[in-house]
Design a protein that fits this description.
The structure holds 2 protein chains of 2 kinds. Chain A is of the alpha/beta class. In chain A, 64% of the residues lie in helices and 8% in strands. In chain A, a hairpin with a 5-residue loop joins strand 14 (933-940) and strand 15. In chain B, a hairpin with a 2-residue loop joins strand 5 (76-83) and strand 6. Classes of the chains: A alpha/beta, B alpha+beta.
């Protein structure tokens, strides 16, 4: 397929994806079931969650709305009663309303509470209660009750007798009736129950029904003071209030976030249309999240949608990086585009993976978030790398000059005070370690489920009023053994008979009602109903929920954090392909988390179960910043000024927009969201500090690093490899070494890039990554042979040389009694030349630079000595020149590679793809010794054997100036070697940058 | 004709501020002169949903400055004793409740009665709207609670005194929702000789430890 066709195919594919996201996203938004309740976000297997769910289903119907009013005087009670009665009449005529009646919700709750207290008494006490409920005993007790109303009066006792005329509570352990007395007298709230014909399933239905209810109440209760104190509650009221509050909050939050982020973007770049593109792409991300949510769940909690701000925080970063790239005048064809695109994708995949691990959480809320954000991030990366460039490449973009200046000054400041910042980091770590014992009891995470209670809601306050208290009465727990025993013993009683006994005692139905309710509850309970037990459990459920959620979150965190860490570690390594950089990245992650904890402590806040989400976000942000920073540092070889020109502005801008995005919940009415936003802001600050300061400071200068692996280029490894080569067959040895070479290349992209640039000098314009990798594979195979040769008898070792060319040139030179300079480049297994020269009987010495360690220099010198090859080290020894001259005059062959001149004298020679520096000092020696120079090459053939070729000797004659002479002969040598070098360029082990 | 002559006896008029002050002054003077008071009483409790009101009888004792006792003869053996800021109730021979009363907590009817022996109208203004009426030969002091009554607090208290010598005749405490407590007093005797043992604490062995602990709120 031609380049143009490929472009069209790519455009079509992206267009198709775009259309799919728009269409499927729109459909998902229309069909997604948006939940408003918190309960489905919790693990459904927890007993407390099951209890709450049961209580919600049984005790708060989706059909009932309650209007509750707490009168402060008899006058108010009368007024409210009149108004509510009128309203009830109107409700009954309203379409969609099944019934409307003034009722007491609390009496029902009280009945259940008292019944449960009866149920959990000890068997002896329970038997006594059963006896007290028998007709004869009940008659007697009621008579006594009436007589107790005479004589010395006690207000509490009167209240108790009013709701417990049979004095069943006499048999209870302790006196639990303190809390019941609140139900008596005129403190009891007025409640109007309005029941819909059908359950109100969605927000719209709830909002409509609740709105109509409120309107009628407003019309029928004329006193403004009373009207404003009527609270609407019940499940539909909760749904209506939460959904409208959420909608209001979300609109407000998104508006604030978008306006402020746009303002900051404009201040940074003074550009409007690209900003609109970037914002449009954010919508695309959210649509992507919705598609995934529709596919995986079919529903989404509105709280999860609110957390979509996380998406904005991270995916804006991708867009801003791309914008900055284009604004710098770079395009899709520039060298910087590929690493940038790669960085964005790896960042998106890593962050999506760290969130994706949350899919295995036991919290359904986290599972929703994992899918929503994971999918959104991937769409974000796609939009930033596929769609945004199309929009930006047609525009003339420019970066304001001040941005560049500020970035460079920041880089200079960081470089100049590098030691200060490093000391600061170490001091911070020491401080954290020292302070740890003192702050370890600080509640960094407060699993206080009460924080999740929407106490500010009218529906919540109404419900509390209906229940009689904000604090539910503490009841004996569900697991009471007494309850199980008593349930079997209970014999259902007749309510009618008991009511008659009350009447005979002179007490009307209002006196009998509480006892009859208790009786009814106990009868249902003994018949197998779960209501009573679940009611008792729900009264105690919040502390239990708090405990269970805390435990579940801790278990989940332990279980998932390891997998999350492994995913992040693996993907970071895949992106950076360097152990050192990956370790640095992980240190940044640890530092960022530590800094977050320090900031949380300094601000005296605690993370809730919701704001705990900032941990994966923080991981995502640090990985994102870290990847871009480290890849750019590698790309620019540690040049911080260049890196900051590229990254400081977009990263700071992203940080600012994220801060703004997460500050938006401050304007919401939800304390949970406010806490979440604040902790997220602290997370963003920690990420920025780590990404923009800690990483560059600890990265150090990339240019100073050696071209070899400091870990493996050691005498010990060489000795070990030689030992291994003794018993491993050559084929296996070469295979293993090739694999290791490939792995090294894959994990060291920066080094492969150097090799690619070097190879391009022999084959312009460019060389593929794969071809550069082959250099490492071949190098591995050569190393295997290097150790193979040393571990085998000379005769067997020499068998790997299958082709020898130019022997006559060497022989003639030797027979003439002259020494010669054997010049070569780092091509193939050039050390093999020593083996052959010994076979020929030609005395030889090799010139080398000092190895990184004395041991390795000695090891390699010993290796050469086996074939009679001496080692002359050139470097700090200023007399090496005379030693070489002496040996040449003695008639020795001196082998020297020319293509790695180091800091010594060199001249430029022309290669097909550019100019390369060749060492010229050694040619100067040949000129002084008047000995010939023999270009030679040793390369591996396809079958694994080697071909050695010595080219015709060159006699060096002075030509004009010394420089001219050196340049002339260096070029001549290059011209002789180049055909072989170009043919076998994947054996040119030139790992040092020649550009 | 009889109605015409009897009309002044039932006529009701509100006392002026000055008249009220005079009344208070006279009442205080009378109470200051009282070291001991003994009277018979009838207590009627009317509760919503109760077919018949519950009537109790007994003797009422007051010793200046703040001791008070209701000793019931119907039902016999019950008592309510108030002294040193504490209330002891003995009920049906089996229950003894001991409470520490707080000055602001005029919840119990016994505490209310005690208050009437020191302040007829003064000092009530904070919680109640106070009005004093002349009803024929009698004086009625009406207290209506300001704002929302707390649990157990009276919504309205009406005290009836003889107009001439300001002797306490009855106290009616309205508790809301048709609940009412009514005390009537007969044969009032002041400063007669009395036995100090009337106000003695019940014996310790009558006050189980558990109940003692419950007191002291």
């Amino acid at each position: 397929m031609s380049g143009k066709n490929k472009t069209w195919a790519r455009l079509l594919a992206h267009g198709g994806i775009l259309l799919f996201i728009l269409a499927a996203g729109g459909w998902s938004v229309a069909h997604l079931n948006f939940q408003t309740e918190l309960l489905p976000l919790f693990p459904q297997h927890l007993p407390s969650v099951q209890t709450l769910a049961y209580a919600q289903e049984r005790f708060s119907s989706q059909r009932e709305v309650w209007a509750v009013f707490q009168p402060r005087s008899e006058e108010e009670r009368r007024q409210a009663e009149t108004g509510l009665t009128r309203a009830a009449g109107r409700f009954q005529k309203m379409p969609g309303v099944a019934s409307a009646e003034i009722s007491s919700g609390f009496t029902a709750a009280l009945g259940k509470t008292a019944a449960w207290l009866v149920a959990v008494q000890s068997p002896e006490r329970f038997d006594a209660i059963c006896r007290a409920l028998s007709p004869e005993e009940a008659r007697k007790r009621l008579g006594e009750t009436v007589s107790l109303l005479g004589g010395a009066l006690d207000a509490d006792e009167l209240a108790r007798l009013r709701i417990d005329p049979l004095r069943l509570s006499d048999f209870f352990e302790g006196n639990p009736f303190g809390k019941f007395s609140a139900a008596t007298g005129n403190a009891q709230p007025l409640a109007l129950k309005i029941e819909a014909v059908a359950p109100l399933q969605d927000f719209e239905a709830c909002q409509k029904f609740v709105g109509a209810t409120r309107k009628i109440l407003d019309q029928e209760i004329s006193e403004a003071g009373l009207r404003s104190r009527i609270l609407l509650t019940g499940q539909p009221a909760f749904t209506a209030e939460i959904s409208s509050a959420m909608r209001r909050d979300m609109i407000l939050m998104i508006t604030v976030a978008v306006v402020l982020a746009s303002l900051v973007f404009w201040i940074f770049y003074r550009s409007l249309v690209p900003l609109l593109w970037i914002l449009a792409l954010q919508v695309l991300n959210i649509l992507g999240g919705f598609i995934a949510a529709q596919f995986f769940f079919g529903s989404l909690n509105v709280l999860s949608v609110a957390f979509a701000a996380i998406l904005m925080g991270v995916s804006m970063d991708y867009c801003i990086l791309v914008y900055h790239h284009f604004a710098q005048g770079e395009g899709l064809r520039s060298e910087a585009w590929r690493p940038l695109r790669r960085g964005i994708w790896f960042s998106a995949v890593t962050t999506a993976a760290s969130f994706g691990i949350l899919y295995f959480s036991i919290f359904p809320g986290l599972r929703q978030l994992a899918v929503l954000i994971g999918a959104g991030l991937l769409v974000g990366a796609w939009g930033a790398t596929a769609i945004l460039p199309l929009a930006l490449s047609r525009r003339r973009l420019q970066i304001p000059a001040w941005l560049g200046r500020v970035s460079e000054r920041a880089a200079e400041g960081l470089q100049k005070r590098g030691r200060f910042w490093k000391t600061g980091c170490i001091a911070f770590l020491i401080l954290c370690a020292t302070a740890a014992p003192f702050v370890r009891h600080y509640p960094f995470y407060a699993a206080d489920a009460r924080r999740l209670q929407p106490t500010q809601l009218e529906a919540y306050r109404g419900q509390a009023l209906l229940r009689g208290s904000h604090e539910p009465p503490s009841l004996p727990l569900l697991s009471s053994e007494n309850a199980a025993r008593n349930r079997v013993k209970w014999t259902p009683r007749s309510a009618a008979e008991l009511e008659q006994i009350f009447q005979q005692a002179g007490l009307d139905a209002s006196w009998a009602k509480p006892t009859l309710e208790v009786l009814s509850e106990l009868n249902q309970w003994s018949a197998g109903g779960r209501d009573l037990e679940m009611f008792a459990a729900s009264a105690n459920v919040w502390p239990q929920l708090q405990r269970e959620l805390g435990d579940a979150a801790a278990r989940d965190f332990k279980r998932l954090s390891l997998w999350m860490f492994l995913a992040v570690l693996g993907l970071s390594f895949a992106a950076l392909r360097s152990v050192r950089l990956t370790v640095l990245s992980m240190c940044a992650l640890g530092g960022g988390l530590l800094l977050l904890l320090a900031l949380v402590y300094a601000n005296r806040v605690s993370m809730t179960i919701v704001s705990l989400l900032c941990v994966p976000l923080l991981i995502g942000l640090i990985i994102d910043y870290g990847l871009h920073m480290l890849l750019e540092l590698e790309h620019h070889k540690g040049d911080l000024r260049a890196v900051f020109r590229q990254l400081a502005a977009p990263m700071s801008l992203t940080g600012l927009t994220s801060l703004i995005g997460f500050s938006a919940p401050f304007v919401s009415s939800q304390p949970v969201l406010q806490n979440f936003g604040f902790v997220m802001d602290l997370g963003v600050i920690a990420s920025l500090a780590v990404g923009l300061m800690m990483l560059p400071v600890w990265y150090g200068g990339g240019a100073r690093r050696p071209h070899y692996s400091a870990a493996f280029y050691r005498a010990g490894w060489f000795a070990a490899a030689e030992s291994a080569a003794r018993w491993i067959p050559r084929r296996w040895l070469r295979g293993l070494a090739k694999l290791a070479g490939f792995f090294y290349a894959w994990t060291h992209p920066a080094k492969v890039a150097v090799v690619r640039r070097n190879l391009a000098l022999t084959s312009p314009p460019s060389v593929s990554f794969r071809e550069a990798c082959r250099v490492y594979q071949n190098f591995g195979a050569n190393l295997a042979d290097y150790f193979y040769v040393s571990s085998r008898p000379r005769k067997q070792a020499a068998q790997i040389i299958s082709e020898r060319m130019g022997y006559d040139h060497l022989k003639k030179t030797h027979e003439a009694g002259r020494g010669a300079l054997l010049v070569t480049v780092h091509l193939g297994l050039f050390e093999l030349g020593g083996l052959l020269m010994q076979e020929f009987g030609f005395p030889t010495a090799a010139l080398t630079f000092p190895e990184p360690s004395r041991e390795l220099t000695q090891w390699r010198a010993a290796y050469r000595r086996r074939w009679g090859v001496e080692t002359i080290e050139v470097g700090e020894d200023e007399f090496a020149f005379f030693e070489i001259l002496r040996q040449l005059r003695q008639g020795k062959f001196i082998a020297a590679p020319l293509d790695r001149p180091g800091d010594f004298q060199s001249v430029e020679v022309t290669f097909p793809g550019g100019r390369v520096r060749f060492a010229s000092g050694v040619l100067l020696i040949a000129l002084a010794a008047q000995c010939p120079v023999i270009p030679s090459t040793i390369v591996a053939k396809a079958d694994g054997s080697y071909r050695i070729e010595a080219h015709p000797p060159l006699e060096l004659k002075p030509r004009g100036s010394r420089e001219e002479t050196l340049h002339f002969y260096a070029q001549k040598i290059a011209d002789v070697i180049l055909p072989t070098l170009c043919q076998y360029r994947t054996q040119w082990y030139q790992f040092v940058s020649l550009s | 004709m009889i109605l015409i002559f009897a009309a002044p006896a039932f006529a009701e008029s509100r006392l002026s501020h000055q008249e009220r002050l005079d009344l208070e002054s006279r009442f205080s003077q009378k109470q200051k002169e009282t070291r001991f008071l003994k009277t018979e009483f009838r207590q009627t409790l009317q509760l919503e949903g109760l077919n018949k009101p519950v009537v109790s009888r007994g003797e009422f004792f007051f010793q200046a400055p703040d001791r008070l006792k209701l000793e019931y003869t119907q039902p016999a053996g019950e008592l309510a004793l108030l002294r040193d800021g504490a209330l002891v109730l003995k009920k049906n021979g089996r229950l003894l409740v001991k409470k520490q009363l707080q000055s602001s907590q005029a919840v119990d009817s016994v505490a209310l009665l005690q208050r009437f022996f020191t302040d007829l109208t003064a000092g009530w203004d904070e919680d109640y709207d106070v009005s004093v009426w002349r009803r024929g030969e009698k004086i009625a002091v009406v207290l209506e609670r300001k704002g929302e009554p707390q649990r157990g607090q009276p919504a309205k208290i009406e005290t009836l005194l003889t107009g001439r010598d300001l002797e306490l005749q009855s106290v009616r405490v309205a508790l809301g929702e048709g609940n009412e407590l009514f005390y009537e007093f007969f044969n009032v005797r002041r400063n007669a000789s009395f036995d100090e043992a009337i106000f003695a604490w019940p014996k310790e062995d009558n006050a189980p430890r558990r109940l003692k602990q419950k007191g002291g709120r």
